[in-house]
Amino acid sequence: MVTPYLAGGHTDPSLRSQRLSLLLLLLLLLPGPPVAPHMEDPTFPHLGESSQPPPRACPWRCSCPRADTVDCAGLDLRLFPDNVTRAARYLSLQNNQLRELPYNELSRLGGLRTLNLHNNLISSEGLPDEAFEALTRLQHFYVAHNQLSAAPQFLPRSLRVADLAANQVAEVFPLTFGEKPALRSVYLHNNQLSNGGLPPDAFRGSDAITTLSLSSNRLSYLPPSLPASLERLHLQNNLISKVPRGALSRQAQLRELYLQHNQLTDSGLDATTFSKLRSLEYLDLSHNQLATVPAGLPRTLAVLHLGRNRIQQVEAARLRGAKGLRYLLLQHNQLGASGLPARALRPLRGLHTLHLYGNGLVQVPMALPRRLRALVMPHNHVAVLGARDLASTPGLAELNLAYNRLASAHVHRRAFCRLRALRSLDLAGNQLTRLPVGLPTALHTLRLQRNQLRALEPEPLAGLDQLRELSLAHNRLRIGDIGPGTWHELQALQVLDLSYNELSFVPPDLPEALEELHLQGNRISSVGPEAFLGTPRLRTLFLRANRLHMTSISAEAFLGLPHLRVVDTADNPEQVLVQLPSTVPRRPRPRRGLSQARPS
């Protein structure tokens, strides 16, 4: 082969390029020396490879923050997403419009641990039972707020949490929740389950269930054969009129039992109904038709809710076993003059709170437990408070006798003298014409609104240097009825409510610590420049619904009030001009009648 030369003795450049190309091709085709397995560097990019990992497959519009997580929530999906990786362990499809789950898609996701289908349109026909046979590792299954009429006939043995609440489920099958040794929580509330739709062996072989919610269904009696491992059982809002004998005999670990809003009567319970519940701490039987306190209550019980029943009398014998009771709620029953006999509650030595709201009691129950801390009995018929009516409860911290029939003449001057720990006293809505005397000096809150108070004198308030809130609203107080020095010893008072009285101007010499002052609904027609000189910490002032006009408030009235933020002057005869000190930052202009930081 003759190689042509160019002038000057050089090889043709095009031929040189062809030679180089041919040489490179031969080098690529020739086998190279073998590479020992231990010498190969897997991180080094080989020929034809990229140094970046391949892109992770993820369904369109979904997010996949990890290789095992697919999140397609809230995308308005109507069809099961394509391209869900087989490696998925967590699949979230809640808040969509799915009506069915294709068997072929679910069956290939054998590694799923969590499947969330909450809030879709899935019917029982759209949830194939066969698909769960492949989900042998599924632990958390959420299908609440759908349209299931029956539970799946089979759920995986590996299940730990099953949530089928807020569907239309009327039938459960033996293997829906049965034979699940790891199952801990089952939620079936807000469905249409009757006793006929819940088989006797519904939970057989599932001996680890601690939480079972069957509330808001159509059960007429407590289901038998409930798991012995239960710790929380929700059965409220059903039609239960009876607890069959022995139905709760195996639940020794049950701590919380909710049976409120049913149709239970005394004949539907017996002395053994609750006696075997050796761990029970909370029992709610409110909103039923009980006429007596149930018998056989366990000593571990801490909270007993019996409100809204038909109980006419509390018998000491019924409470003798519940020695650990801390909270007894008996509001809105039919307890009359003899409803709580003397010493009826004495067995409850650790009782902390007693609620008796809305009964027909005519006096404070006698011989209450000594350690009682809260006595709540508004809306009764108590007309007399004697010197020793509260003597048995020296540790009382809260006393509520609002909306009874107490008149000043029938409140003994020593009625409160033993209550040295009292922090809150509510006497609102009675017939008091003057402040009670002998008030405990530890009081923080005193409520006397909606009485018939006509005078305020300093003596009843003397020594109340810890009082923080005082409500005197809706009485008949006038400026002349407030004696000189009335507020002098209220050094800690922060909230004072004098609304809806007959005051003609702002009371003088208000407490220095005051932060919130209610004067709405009075007859105030002017606010002078010295009205708030003694209240430098004032933050909120209510002057609405008085007799104020445009210039009724002095321009200097709020000087020296650096913390003042709200002055409410709505519903006066005219729009009121309010000027706040310039030290207060300017704020957006409020609506008519509500002034916020308008600098002078």
From TrEMBL:
Coiled coil: none annotated. GO terms for cellular component: extracellular space. It comes from the Eukaryota. Keywords: Leucine-rich repeat, Repeat, Signal. Residues 1-37 form the signal peptide. Gene3D superfamilies: Ribonuclease Inhibitor. PANTHER family: AGAP008170-PA, PODOCAN-LIKE PROTEIN 1. This is Podocan-like protein 1.
